[in-house]
Amino acid sequence: MNIGDVSRESGVSTKMIRYYEEIGLIPAAHRTEAGYRTYSDKDVHQLRFIRRARDLGFSVTQLAELLTLWSDGHRASADVKRIARQHIAELEHKIQELRAMTDALKHLAEHCHGDHRPECPILEDLAGAVEVEARHMDLTRFGAGGVDPVRRKKEIH
Amino acid sequence: MNIGDVSRESGVSTKMIRYYEEIGLIPAAHRTEAGYRTYSDKDVHQLRFIRRARDLGFSVTQLAELLTLWSDGHRASADVKRIARQHIAELEHKIQELRAMTDALKHLAEHCHGDHRPECPILEDLAGAVEVEARHMDLTRFGAGGVDPVRRKKEIH
DNA sequence: TTAGGGCTTCCAACGGTCGGAAGGTCAAGC
DNA sequence: GCTTGACCTTCCGACCGTTGGAAGCCCTAA
């Protein structure tokens, strides 16, 4: 099987398969005389494993641990469970952060009239609630939409 | 004020201030004869605005829009609300994804004994539930923990 | 033999932030 | 005036995971 075949069968792009090989997550594939990578059904199976774990949000580092455990017939399921629990904790922490953001934003958005008038509690909060009056007086000349600077390698889309 | 002062007062690192200038999010600062950037209280104000918006998870692109609106005395609050609502939707979508991951993982972890034995529903699910038997028979030789490949620029920690 | 697709490697970009090197500048203390 | 140390400058790279593209070789069917 060539790399394109395993890619289709495993759902992992050829780019990523080569990358995983490069970082040592998967062993280097055998090569044909022409230098083509060749794969077996077992490799497809392993890449599917990787794909699923990635879909569950495991990092590549965690994935390496899981693969080692997967390959170890004498593993203790406690080790797997530990990795999973740790990942769950990370995910829940992330969720908490996002929740806090959305709650704060929703609260602000609810109090914004959302009409043609310029008054907006969202901007006022971002500017700093204490300084609302000052902002109205003399801070209206800011902005990124003005004269366009040089913009070397990156720019805002 | 030098860049270090604004950084301390705004909570935005000097690295990021230079970066924001480079991508055109903020205008290029004035320079002293020696080439040092100089800033005013208004710049501190603006950077605080940026800091708060970033803390709320707005992307730099969205930030550019918000800054433009902030600087526009004739803006309609509806525009700000639209950006906020869009961002809320993105955040909630992300939360949903993470929720789905944690739910799936929790379900698996609950059914894992977590003891010394190798049997583990977490790994079995990752390997593909249908092929559990096959895995036990002949797929135990996989793994990233084997012979360490060359590892050029990147490696797994 | 030619055309097309697949394969190879290498280089860069994305977003946002940080670390560090190499060198110039400024203030204080001697 | 000189040294010291904190600050500033630019430039380059790393992080993580993924994608895009270029340039060139290989394979197969027509």
From TrEMBL, chains A, B:
Keyword list, A-Z: Coiled coil, Cytoplasm, DNA-binding, Transcription, Transcription regulation
Highest taxon listed in the record's lineage: Bacteria
Single Gene Ontology MF annotation: copper ion binding
Keyword Transcription regulation recorded: yes
GO biological process entries: positive regulation of DNA-templated transcription
Residue span, HTH merR-type domain: 1-69
GO CC terms in record: cytoplasm
SUPFAM superfamilies assigned: Putative DNA-binding domain
Main location: cytoplasm
InterPro entries, A to Z: CueR, DNA-bd_dom_put_sf, MerR-type_HTH_dom, MerR_fam, Tscrpt_reg_MerR_DNA-bd
Compartments it resides in: Cytoplasm
One Pfam match: MerR-DNA-bind
Residue ranges that the Swiss-Prot or TrEMBL entry lists as coiled coil: 81-108
PANTHER family: HEAVY METAL-DEPENDENT TRANSCRIPTIONAL REGULATOR HI_0293-RELATED (PTHR30204:SF94), REDOX-CYCLING DRUG-SENSING TRANSCRIPTIONAL ACTIVATOR SOXR (PTHR30204)
Name of the protein: Transcriptional regulator
Origin species: Sinorhizobium saheli
